[in-house]
Specification:
By secondary structure, the chain is mainly beta. The longest helix is centred in the C-terminal third of the chain and has 12 residues. The strands form two sheets. Strands 2, 3, 4, 5, 6 and 7 form a six-stranded antiparallel sheet that branches. The protein has two helices and nine strands; from the N terminus they run E-H-E-E-E-E-E-E-E-E-H.
């Protein structure tokens, strides 16, 4: 979803509140791809706080199927995000600013998917387990040991 920022930047409006939703059906970070099962619309608020500075505020959550790190069974994982970010829109922004901060701004448009993608990337759990005592897979035959012993000699 793209949001047009021209009214804010021209001074016509000082605040913009939008019911935003994600267009992406999969979360693909380049290494892994997770199916997004549920994504609720969320309220995105953009406030003009200076001549060319915008303050972006929103919170929401997505539910994704992430494979268990031990047995590869799909685990429904909810990732909640809170965004509270300030963006300088001028080309000659301070040298301290990193280009990654503005990758979701393209011209006068804010790309909601790219904005939320960066937050989800930071919030995905480092380790996902289907249950705390998951036994994983047999190293010989690949059987799921949570469903029973496979009979392989593991000594």
């Amino acid at each position: 979803m793209l949001i047009d920022l021209r009214k804010l930047l021209s001074g016509t409006e000082d605040e913009l509140t939008v019911s935003a939703c994600l267009d992406m059906d999969k979360f693909d970070d380049g290494l892994n791809s997770y199916e997004i099962v549920s994504k609720e619309p969320f309220e995105l608020k953009i406030v003009k706080v200076g001549k060319s500075k915008l303050h972006i505020i929103c919170s929401g959550s997505v539910d994704m199927n992430i494979p268990c790190d031990r047995c590869l069974k799909s685990v429904l994982t909810s990732v909640s995000f809170d965004i509270d970010d300030a963006v300088e829109m001028e080309e000659n922004a301070s040298e301290d600013e990193e280009p990654e901060e503005k990758d979701y701004i393209d011209g006068y448009n804010l790309d909601v998917d790219k904005l939320v993608f960066g937050e989800i990337l930071l919030l995905i759990p480092g380790k996902t387990l289907c249950k705390e005592d998951c036994k994983g897979l047999c190293l010989r035959c690949g059987a799921n040991l949570n469903e029973g012993e496979c009979g392989c000699d593991r000594e």
